[in-house]
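Quick one: co-fold with magnesium ion.
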Amino acid sequence: NHAKQARRHRRVFDDAMARALQRKEALQARLTRALRNQQLTLHFQPQVDLASGTLTGAEALCRWHDEEWGWVSPGEFIPLAEERGLINQLGHQVVRSACRQLKQWEAQERHFPGRLSINLSAQQLDNPQLTNQLLRLSNGILPRQLGFEITETALMRAPQQAIRITRELQGVGFSLAIDDFGTGYSSLNYLKRFAADTLKIDMTFVHDMLDSSHDRAIVSTIIAMARALGMKTVAEGVERREHVELLCELGCDQAQGFYYGRPTDADDFADRWL
Ligand code: C2E
Ligand code: MG
Ligand code: MG
Ligand code: MG
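Sure, here it is.
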């Protein structure tokens, strides 16, 4: 009987695996095509100064709508692109469209303040030409108008390499944020050696800090540590006025989240913010 049940579980598991793999193969083919036809788009989410509520910049977030599969979430297609060797091509297109958008806002006399942040994947750090390529792709845009976000986990995958690359990026004038901070395992020793000017506090801590004194202590400690290292803090996932109030109290510099605005297309973003 036990054996029978185990066999049944096994079959259900195998079916689910097979379906997941099929979806992956299909999505990979569609994504390859979407990249070839440059069909990925960007949404923009405001980043604001917590004390004044004014815009300090935005994060560019990649979006993909497929005719057959509908909207595919970046949580699915970014890891897929990483796994299937498509992430460098995707990353290039994101930088190009982000810069094209900055120029277009400028042409429309929509003043974009601060900097536009673009996410980089771990594998993009393996490219020894990364800094030069980013400079080339952002031709016509000043480096200080762009920031790059790299997750703590991605930086810690090969910390020595990350130290070198972050210093290179900083050296040419790009700014750099450590994304999803608090979820990885960086040591304080590495933290000070990465050339990052901003820490983005992962949204899990922000969401839990209202109910948990532990999470509040974590957020407060991250802010104090960032300040000691001369870095700014951005809280992610700010959804409620209570988040804003507590983050202000704890001395956090900036915030990003649904409370201020969801990621939206360039026109909506400009109408609301620029
Ligand atoms: P991330 O860089 O940490 O981006 C923040 C994510 O949090 C975005 O999800 C955003 O829509 C979501 N978010 C913002 N405010 C709130 C809030 O108040 N509440 C909640 N629940 N969520 C909020 P999104 O757009 O689905 O992107 C997911 C992840 O995909 C990003 O996380 C980033 O790691 C990756 N990603 C997106 N675009 C790119 C890209 O162009 N290149 C690379 N390499 N990764 C990207
Ligand atoms: Mg990010
Ligand atoms: Mg994040
Ligand atoms: Mg994330």
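If it helps, Residues 137 and 244 are 36 Å apart (CA to CA).
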